[in-house]
# Entry
Amino acid sequence: MSAPAPRVRFAPSPTGYLHVGGLRTALYNYLFARGLGGRVILRIEDTDRTRFVEGAAENLASTLAWAGIAFDEGPGIGGDFGPYVQSERSEIYSAHAQQLLNEGKAYRCFCTPEELEASREKQVAEKRDPAYDRRCRALSEADVQSRMDNGMPFTIRMKVPLVGQMYFHDLVRGEITMHFDSIDDQVLIKSDGFPTYHLANVVDDHLMEITHVIRGEEWLPSAPKHHLLYDFFGWEAPAFAHLPLLLNADRTKLSKRQGDVAVEDYRSKGYLPAALVNFVALLGWNPGDDRELFTLAELEKTFSLERVSKAGAVFDIEKLNWFNAQYLRALPPAELAEVCGPWMRAAGFEAETPARAEAVVSAFASYLTVPSDIGAHLRFLTLGQVTLESAEDRDLVASSDSQKVLVRFADLAETQDPWATPEVKALIKQVQSDTGIKGKGLFMPLRLALSAEQHGPDLGLMAELLGREETVRRIRAQII
RNA sequence: GGCGCGUUCGUCUAGCGGCUAGGACGUGGCCCUCUCAAGGCCAAAACACGGGUUCGAUUCCCGUACGCGCUACCA
# Structure
């Protein structure tokens, strides 16, 4: 017998960009479900109208799609359990809250935000634990009725048992114990009629037949409330897995101000989705062997919740860079030219043909961490004239040996045809045997003459990229 | 403060009672080589601390310390 195919969901709130931590949560949900032939649902949790950002949901969807994470159900995708946007499900939450009210498992609270705030401050001042004092829990039916008749706004709170404790299982952390006396009477429906996360996520997960809730560790403290709600409704709770947090270098929760946290930031810098996904997959999970390079499809086959670790993981940009460099180098020339295109043009380099762009970009593939790195390497191609910056370089080129090399090379190159790396290499060999100069003394004057740089890729390749005419022109320009 | 969770090289991690504690990034060195990058090889680098349990603890249990998270009519 096998368990039914899982149904999981990624449920971001549309408050802006997609956080890399969110990407990892989405990824783990996706990998877990895909590996078991299950379904992945995207649900937008927009019950906080004060934090709503126009277009954020669409941005979330397109960023997720860029990363290669596809959903089976969700806004704009469809499915049998919609709508998938919580703001469109208000009646559902109200009805469920009403049910709890009828069954005595929730109550109306008429305390105003100001009153609650004052109460909290007082508790803190008296060094007591800030918690709702439950004053409205004891209101008589008549009291409640008269306040409602007066049009007083109210919230609906859940009636958490006053004593006792509860246990629940977490797929990542094992058994967890929590005492009821440390759990507040959580607000389920806000005075604006919208549900809080706690009510909405429980109701939706049940109605959408979610089997596994895979979310960040920041939800662990409120998990007992959610379990309690499942009990209140008489529903079977899904399995829970709370993922370790992604951290800054100082081990605080990964945040802006200490580097880029938006997936969009990495996307716009040219990081490859495959590299970002591969890197992030290994932050809190490992395959159990020494492999590190995984495609999305391979991750789907290999991923398991059992191998998710418990401790937070520092987001190390250096390692991301290594992954990106690996993926960049593995790209076929055409694709590399494609991803580097914008930065090549920004550096003032326009390739006449696709083949030309590919040849140029391939020459520098091993130099790139991020596509934008290409710009610095292309400068020598766009140079109108080569100017040696340091006295050391000028002296080197002006030496009599160097001059001999330059003259001989230019003379031979003049009539060389065809002009490609092998021919140029043979030509340099010829210069060597004609002049008796070899090694650095042979190459450096040519290299400086062509690029004004002491470092760079294979000299023959550089000459090929420059073309015969330009090569000769640059060499001659350095002959005194 | 309270509650919860966590703790193996600088970082990501393997380890599920007996290992010279393994791999990767980064760092250093060597090789390759006209140079740089890439690549190959090598090196330095970790079990937070204290008690137990056990013939034997990185591993199991309990404390302590430290870190993080939560403590909203935000998610």
